[in-house]
Design a protein that fits this description.
The structure is a homotrimer. Chain A is of the alpha/beta class and about 400 residues long. Chain A contains 16 helices and nine strands. In chain A, helix 1 packs antiparallel against helix 16, helix 4 packs across helix 5 and helix 8 runs parallel beside helix 9. The longest helix of chain A is centred in the N-terminal third of the chain and has 19 residues. The radius of gyration of chain A is 21 Å and the shape is globular. Chains in contact: A-B, A-C, B-C.
Chain lengths: ~400, ~400, ~400
């Protein structure tokens, strides 16, 4: 009975999908702001369908074989596992491209390697978030190499690239966050007029990427929300992205402002996202020093930066700040792991009490990411995502058990 | 013809399974002594059926997708491959959770990580055998986190945990060893009255876990065998587990005793398991020093321990000791790798001559482990293992070739 | 329509296969010179069929489960990915046997480990190319251990071994190179009389294995080509393999000669393969020093060797040398990565201009390797490769999408 309801709900959702006009087929997912509203809604809807299918024990496996390359140029647990989960759900085997396992560090060009790993690959997931101006550029370089390889008959298919975090955006994170918001508020329409505060928060570490806050303000500003970006003076983000968020907000009937008081920003907030990041100008200097492999310079920059951070130890999200939000109960969001005061560090982004109230919510938030990635893959590879989802329903293969 | 006989033998075994009343569905396999006799017999029978199915080229794949997380907090080849083999046989992809690949070492809580890796996971295999009082506790901590995640709707299924060796037990080893004994002696009834000697043996290394000898005496004492635990004075195991083995033996109609002479213990033995381990009190001190990261203390403890070991270099299983056993031909067992005198070390647990006579037997012994793990997974996930095995027979999918 | 043509072309090729009488079933692929002409043609034809099937979205998956063990005792990107791709195409999951993940380095014998990793393995791919006289021997040692394990009932199947590069041969490379030549020239008959120059080239590194040039001259000399092996005096290969190439050439109606001038050798060449390697006698000394772990000796040898290399910096393949070849447009080949002057090093094996003209060709060349490996696996496991390929056609399962 429940199963039958589920099937009809799934069929309705798939039918809804068919009204959208995405241009996702054959296109890499590198930045949300390169994607149309229909693109975003398609990914969200497909992710929702895949999630429901799996819950109903319907296997959406659409690859009988094929590799998904996992190229992490920085550490990661949750995104790595999300990528592995998404790949596996669709039938792809993950193959890690690790520098310690490969010869890549020894003078091979990106161009060559991109082709060498792609003879039987369907997707390449890349995380490259360390250097400002580099990560996204690297992904496009890989993409150009794959285009060339495909055009010249080297590659039988053009593998799709999924941006698993770069210096500019973290689209699988921001889209999972948006999916979480839709699960809480019900529909994109319901987001209109909501106040979302993307706030800097104190952390005892330095060099945290800018891509999460940038991704959040760039994406959420497209849904008529009132976005407030709060940070201590000096902790600004890439200016072009901030400007874009302002334009987005204006166009979607929302608003966008920058403030320099965490407390002020929290007032009447519906949604808060307190998270640390490094200042834009520090990241610029850091990138230069990293390029020059200037260890002494990096050490000094870290000291300067940590000393500067320490001035803003009161930028911690705690119960007092929570009280300032709408009805004292804004939705708290975080990409995890959070620096939790007294838990993962002496003092950090959020107090233990405040975090604990939302801990399970942040787990749920994270749980959308594998489905977002799977949806990005499916819509990249299948021209008509609705049709393939219908085929999956018709086939009705169980994920667990004997069909 | 052979194939037909195999099918009818398989059908008979599956029918036999249906008489057992296990409580394995939805329960982690952490310690054999938490499991009923029917639980153990069910795992053994399912393992036997899976083994025969694979030999008959019938694929018992019951997952179309899904991850099995491999979390090894200590090195391992054979158990790692056994876990990978079992997962693959059932259709799951292995995803390693390695500390060097993840952020786990950097302040994430177990609770959070357990959920983050489990959104599409069906099983987590954990080896954590280094610290007394820690490994099994860690597994339960992970289990609690998974329970919470599942109860609160974070996880679509509660992944099962398979203990791949902890500080207390090594259930996939002891169950594989028991399966080996059953393959040699024919039935649990045939084990009654057999003398099994679990003996300490000399090794030039220190800090070997206690979980194998503990697992062996705790499990084998349930089948009416006469168990003798032999070790030099001072090399005792966790007292509670030794006491339990005594109670088990009494209840099952066997006996249990401790002795301090390898030679004496070997007399009339049917089965001998000579293997090195560190003394309980040394492991307690070592755990404290490891917690404090006291390198100097650890170095000194190692010296003391090795010097102590050296007093017992004659605790080597050799042809002389073999002659003392029943008809001079007891079954020699080892979890591998053994410290073989003149092969892997100057002097070790077993002489090269004695080992060579049983080398192939020890390989066979090890070969049961992947099936034991697969059976633990299958019985955790399917309420009626007999029914799913029947479904697999009915489907009759080939493992190799075109069905 | 295109699809229909493809099907009939595939059916014709499979029918052609049936005329060959290979002895590949159950035999490891360790050296091309142990294989008959029918063996080689079978592998090439099967590789071609698998490639066309995949392009036509027909999945040649013949394993429902099973492991392919990847044992790289040296770094590698392209061969590692080729092995992973081939395994995945046929339905096998790759399991890495890495020394840092295992206990292999700590006194385990090859014999034992080979069995321990093989209870559910179908193939073991091994790269071991560092020590002269060691790599191929190691593979045979593993093979003997697997034979024993299978004969004595430890292993349910005897896993096949694929040589992914040893000290003597690099058969997956040379066979992929041959497949490339056949795709350029059309048929083995068309290779007759072609001049192929396997030339040493300058590199600022030392210790490059001999297996690629050895594999090339040993294999290509079997097809009636005129092979010229060019190197500076002192840079000879393993003498027995050079002699064999001479005999092969004589028997196949071609010729074989050694020269010591890159320029002279290039005259009228149809195909050129300029690639660096270490001199045979240096590799012998290096092997001795590595065995003794003589760091100082190794350092000194490296200095001597690099100084010697530097005398031959003009052994660079450039546009001038290209002009000397047949119509100034010989086919340039390389196993990649090449040392490209001004790109991956100051001065290397090939000038940037010359390489760029053939860059895409070398990518295509590399793209045959996964199919060669898959064909080696398929012909090892299935007695009648034509029949199983027909079964795959009949089943007509899509690789991507819903069948």
């Amino acid at each position: 009975m429940i199963q039958e309801e589920r099937y009809s709900s799934l069929e309705k959702k798939i039918a809804g999908l068919k009204r959208l006009k995405p241009r996702l087929h054959g296109h890499d997912f590198l930045l949300t702001w390169e994607k149309s509203d229909d693109d975003l809604m398609t990914v969200l809807e497909v992710a929702g369908v895949l999630r429901e299918m799996r819950a109903a024990n319907i296997s959406p496996r659409v690859f009988d074989s094929g590799l998904a390359i996992s190229n992490f140029r920085d550490n990661s647990t949750r995104t790595r596992f999300s990528f592995a989960s998404a790949s596996n759900l669709l039938g792809l085997a993950v193959q890690d491209l690790d520098e310690e396992k490969s010869q890549i560090a020894h003078g091979e060009t990106v161009r060559e390697t991109a082709n060498m790993i792609s003879f039987m690959s369907d997707f390449i997931g890349i995380r490259d978030d360390m250097f400002l101006g580099e990560g996204n550029r690297y992904m496009r370089e890989v993409g150009d190499a794959l285009d060339e390889g495909f055009d010249k008959g080297v590659l039988p298919v053009r593998p799709g690239i999924v941006n698993l975090q770069c210096d500019m955006d973290h689209p699988t994170q921001s889209m999972a966050d948006l999916m979480h918001l839709l699960s809480v508020y019900g529909s994109p329409g319901a987001l209109k007029g909501k106040k979302l505060v993307m706030s800097w928060a104190y952390s005892p570490s330095y060099g945290k990427p800018l891509s999460v806050p940038q991704g959040i303000i760039a994406l959420m500003s497209r849904f008529g929300m009132n976005i407030e970006l709060a940070y201590p003076e000096g902790y600004s983000l890439i200016p072009e992205i901030v400007e874009m968020a302002g334009r987005n907000a204006a166009e979607s009937g929302g608003s966008f402002c920058v403030s320099h008081s965490m407390e002020e920003s929290m007032k009447d907030a519906d949604i808060v996202y307190p998270k640390s990041w490094a200042p834009f100008h520090i990241m610029q200097q850091r990138t230069e020093l990293l390029k020059k492999a200037d260890r002494q310079g990096l050490k000094e920059l870290e000291q300067v930066c940590l000393a500067n951070n320490a001035k803003f130890r009161d930028w911690e999200f705690d119960d007092e700040k929570l009280k300032l939000t709408k009805d004292g109960s804004a939705l708290y969001m975080h990409c995890l792991p959070a620096d939790i005061s007294g838990v993962s560090c002496e003092r950090g982004e959020v107090s233990a009490d405040a975090f604990e109230q939302y801990r399970i919510e942040t787990y749920r938030e994270a749980g959308f990411k594998p489905y977002i990635i799977a949806a990005m893959m499916l819509t990249n590879r299948f021209e008509d995502p609705g049709a393939i989802l219908e085929d999956i329903m018709r086939r009705d293969h169980r994920r667990v058990g004997i069909s």
